[in-house]
Amino acid sequence: MADRDELAAAFEEHRAHLRAVAYRLLGSMTDADDAVQDTWLRLTSADTTEVENLGGWLTTVVARVSLNMLRSRRQRQELPVGDAWPRAADAAAAAGAAGTTGVAGVADPEFEAVLADSVGLALIVVLDTLTPAERLAFVLHDMFAMPFTEVAAVLGRSTAATRQLASRARRQVRATPSPEQASDLARQREVAAAFMSASRGGDLSALVAVLDSDAVLRADAAVTPAGRPVELRGAEAIARGAVAAAARSEASWLALVDGAVGIVFAPGGRLQVVLALTSREDRITGIDVIADPDRLGRLKLALLPD
What is the span of the domain harbouring residue 8? Predict the structure, then answer.
């Protein structure tokens, strides 16, 4: 397969699959496209004359590239932001899982239902809470039916250790929110979205409307130039503070923050501030503004797609 045109044609046959694998591993179509491009560059510089299964070889390469990107992102506290929700990648991912006969050979209708709904928000949210190794083991084996021996080779671990990683990830996925919890998250999301929209528009009255009259905002010392914690009480005071910080809202996104809907400020994907929200019915009752690096590092975050 020395001819570059033939190589390119063969690569294009696998591009959709590679994109789906990379997207499920990275949770960002922009990052997934970068991983696929890197895989192409590695293919063009490699000797593939002895490769019998090009699709398997490419999948291994894109998985390794994605794993490195995940690890690097965690070290730099980066978030994959600014992507649209990629329906095409979801369809390819669902197709990749469709050929399996269950997870780890266990007939579990409830879990199969979760996998069947792999195009939904819940799975992406859960995947973002896993470690890079857990995510790779689960995605490659449970969603794309890669044998554990091959997944282990990607991770550089034993097959037994890789099975344990996938098992831990599977337990996390099984903990996907119940219908009641999902309904509450949907309500939280509506409230958080209204707050963020009003902040972006500098709309004081809309901000007051979405805040409980007795709402409390607490910001840690890392947020303020003076280096001291700040506390604001009442809808009016908090709304004025949000208007003053409106410029930040343009680089902010909705996210799950330790299991509840909040807001992250991450310009260029670099996490700087998290707003952990508490709400009752359709009003925000509390805002915890977190910028201390140690506190940020302990949070479980998962961006919510548009």
Answer: 4-174
Q: Which of 117, 139, 174 is the last residue of a domain?
A: 174
What residue spans of 175-203 are helical by DSSP H? 179-201
pTM, entire model: 0.57
For residue range 177-217, list pLDDT tens digits in order.
Answer: 666 666 787 889 899 999 999 999 999 999 999 999 999 99
Cα distances (angstroms) measured from residue 98 to each of 41, 62, 86, 117, 238: 30, 21, 19, 11, 49
Query: At which residue do the structure tokens 């591009």 appear?
Result: 15
Residues 6+ apart with CB under 8 A from 106: none
Sign of CA dihedral 194, 199, 201, 205: positive
For 1-28, what is each residue's pLDDT tens digit?
457 788 899 999 999 999 989 988 887 7
- CATH number for the domain including 84? 1.20.140.160
Q: Report DSSP letters for 78-125, one per residue.
A: B---S----HHHHHHHHHHHHT--SBTTB--HHHHHHHHTTTSHHHHH
Indicate the residue among 113, 143, 174 that finishes a domain: 174
